[in-house]
Structures are given as C-alpha cells and as structure tokens.
Amino acid sequence: MTDVRDLLDRVSAPDGDGRPIHDPATGEVIGNAPEATVAELDAAIARARAAQPAWEALGHEARSAALNAAADAVDARAEELARLLSREQGKPLNGPNARFEVGACSAWLRTNAALRLEPEVLVDDGETHAELHYRAVGVVGAIGPWNWPLMIAVWQLAPALRMGNTVVVKPSEYTPLSVLALVDVLNEALPADALIAVSGGRDVGARLASHPDIDKVMFTGSTATGRRIIESSAGNLARLTLELGGNDAGIVLPGTDATAIAQDLFWGAFINTGQTCAALKRLYVHDSVYDEVVEALAEVAKATPMGNGLDEDNVLGPLQNRQQFDIVNRLVEDAKTHGARIVTGGSPATELGELFYPITLVADIADGVALVDEEQFGPALPIIRYTDVEDAIASANRLDVGLGGSVWGPDRDEARRIAARIESGTVWINSHGGVHPMIPFGGVKGSGYGVEFGVEGLKAVAVPRVING
C-alpha cells in the first residue's frame, strides 16, 4: 500500500499544534491542519505581490512549460495524493472519485498550459487600428470547497497562473491537508511564491476576500458565503468569479428508455455521494415512464457498494462532515412527514460508520417539500411525477438557483428545444454534470456569476487592454 506519511509530514502542523483533521469514514485523526493568523496571510499576500511581476514577465511559453512540469509532479505523486484525499474527504479511491479527481488536476493543468489567448483586431479600416489584449490581473485569491478540494483548486489556480497572476489559495477548513499537499507538489515545478497556500479559519477567508492587495477572488461554495464575499470585496473592488450553490433539475421526457439512462442518471445525482454543486438534485419524470425510472434507479442503487474509501471495491463514501450529514437526515425525515415514499435508504447507515447515509430515492413527492426546494448536497434524490412538460419546465425554473440542468429523452432535437428554456448556466442532454476543460462553466441567478474553463476562463483571470493606434 502506498504510504502518505511523507506528504502529511510535509504539510501537517507538529503534534500538539494546529487543528486535528479526522477521516470521515473512521473518525481517525489523520493529521493536524496549520492554523494561520491574519498576519501570516498578510505576509503571504505580500510575498505573492512581490513575485507577480517576474512571473508575468516570464511570458506565456515559460509559464506554459512550468504548468506542464507541475502536471508531471502531480502525476508522479498521484497515488499518494489520491489516498490522502480519500482519507480526508471520504471519497473512495475508485469510480469517479479520488483517483479520478487527481487525474483531473493534471489534465486541467495541461489544458491550460496549451491554451492561447491571442490579441483580437477590433477595427482595422485604414484609419483606425484597434486591438484587444489581455494581461494578468495581479494577485488572485482562491477560496475552495471541501467536496472536490483538489480539482476545484486547480480549476482556480491553473488559468490564473497561466495568465501571469500569482495565487494565494485558502482551502476549506474541512479538507486543508490534501490541498496543502497538492500545492506543495505543484511548487516543486513553480518559482518561489507564485503559488502559496494558507490554511486557516473564517477570519483568514474573510481577510483574503477583502485584502487591498487581492485583485481577483475566485470562490466555490455556498450562496450565503458568496454574498458575504461580495460585501467583503466592495472595499478593494476585487474582480469576482463565484460558483455557488445549485439545486439542479433534470426532466425525463415521455418515450425515454429507463434502463438505458439509469446508470447515467444515477451518477449524475450521486457522484461523490451527491456532494457536488452541479449534481442532479431534483428529478422530474413523466407519468408514462415514472415507475420504470424509479425501479431502474433502485436497481442501480442496490448494486453500488458504499463504505470506507480505501477499500478498492467501494465507489460511494460517507458524508464529509457532521453538518452535511445532519442536513441530509433532516430533509429525508421531513419528506417522510409529507407522505413521500422511500424507495431505497431512508435512514443512517450506522453499520458502516457515523457519517454514512445510504443512497436514498424518494418518490411520490412534490414541489414545496424541503427535500425538493433546498439543496440537499448528499445521497438523497427526490423524484417528482409530472404529466405536462410545461409544468416540468416551470418547476425546474421556479427556484432562485441556476447552475446546471438536464433533459433526458429519445428525440435530441426536442430535448434541445426544452433545454433552451431551462434557466441555468449549463444544460446537458441525456447526461448530467460532466465538465470539460475547454467548455465554459458557471451559474446564473443565486448560483453565482462568471465562468471558468477554456479561453473564456483565461479572460476571467485577466484584464482587457485596448491598444488603439
């Protein structure tokens, strides 16, 4: 078995210092997270500010080479990173989980290394020649979540570094060790202070968002925290990219083959045990195929193993923390009081561990019930019956969130027509939640603003400059 002790020793606070971090599957303490002060954050930002001009001056080719070297470093320590991630976050090694996430880190690094953001000629009419160029913003503050801590950190830092910014990363208080380890590995290939990670509490996060030397804030997390970041950034006028909460709706059309879509539906909802911003969280199914879809999903759920992530057979893990476990449990219990039918799961899986909750399919439920209206962010899926597709579209659009959505059906043209009416940043056809490093991704309404990925993602961490003459 690969030992993660070397990585832990490099990033953990000494015994007796810092804050203990527990394995959500077993409760075991795996290391101690350093707890930086606001003064230490200020010093880190000052170092990043001092390093930024030289990093930008290296030019695109040199920065691209550095990102590729950083991807090589991740690949060399991939198994150690995956095992540390599994122990800290709880997600299994296999399936679309820890090894998958580490692989996505190197893939996003390499894609950003290869991207080109060329100057654009705006006007060239013989009298006026105007070009649009992009340069670095300066220092980027990246505040990440606990559900995909490594992958989302790279989503933030890779384009920022590519454009010549330096980056200060503040990981989630729940999953700091794996992010600190990732940054330590990346820094084997990057110049000093181009990338700095600072682990700390909410006071550190608040200071990062409001610091006068932070030029851009990238945040992935809850809508409530996103609103506070907007308020905090008013003083420094930092640019913002906010990827906030979602309550993604899926619509299954009549004529759909339930068996054919069951696996993709299941993983659209339950990737990372449902702890994904753009997971499928409300499923509207036409009455003509409702029972078949519920039954097909139940069969997949029963065949999908859950347990300790270090067990190679498991592909579903625990909830990462007690707060999220309590939210899922509360919403399922509330659904029961409203007469909903529990098809699978429905109560904590205490035989597996304190924070395990089984895949819970909840049928015969309606809009207005908390499990439908609130983001559960866990392994419980409400399945709502409809008879008129217009009602399903209205239901999908009724909440003040809009990260993702999906339409499922045999007629792709019809699905696209319906997708065009869904109020979300992305609408998938016959799939849900898949992202690609070249396809922009972001939300609308309460799910935030700004986009990541591809050329548009590079523009989001850059300042446009027009050269006219």
Description:
Strand 16 (404-408), helix 15 (412-419) and strand 17 (426-429) form a beta-alpha-beta unit. This protein has 2 domains: 5-244 and 447-468, Aldehyde Dehydrogenase, Chain A, domain 1, CATH 3.40.605; 248-429, Aldehyde Dehydrogenase, Chain A, domain 2 (3-Layer(aba) Sandwich). It has helices at residues 5-11, 38-57, 60-76, 78-89, 98-114, 149-162, 176-186, 202-210, 223-232, 258-270, 290-302, 322-337, 370-373, 389-397, 412-419, 454-460; strands at 19-22, 29-33, 120-124, 129-136, 139-143, 166-170, 195-197, 216-220, 239-243, 248-252, 280-286, 341-344, 360-363, 380-386, 401-402, 404-408, 426-429, 444-445, 448-449, 462-468. Strands 12-13-14-11-10-16-17 form a 7-stranded mixed sheet, sandwiched between helices. The chain has 469 residues and is of the alpha/beta class. The mean pLDDT is 97. It is globular. The longest helix is centred in the N-terminal third of the chain and has 20 residues, at 38-57.
Q: What's the helix and strand layout?
A:
Elements: H1 5-11, E1 19-22, E2 29-33, H2 38-57, H3 60-76, H4 78-89, H5 98-114, E3 120-124, E4 129-136, E5 139-143, H6 149-162, E6 166-170, H7 176-186, E7 195-197, H8 202-210, E8 216-220, H9 223-232, E9 239-243, E10 248-252, H10 258-270, E11 280-286, H11 290-302, H12 322-337, E12 341-344, E13 360-363, H13 370-373, E14 380-386, H14 389-397, E15 401-402, E16 404-408, H15 412-419, E17 426-429, E18 444-445, E19 448-449, H16 454-460, E20 462-468
Helix pairs in contact: 1-7, 3-5, 4-5, 4-7, 5-6, 8-9, 10-11
Pfam families: Aldedh
GO molecular function: oxidoreductase activity, acting on the aldehyde or oxo group of donors, NAD or NADP as acceptor
Active site: 243
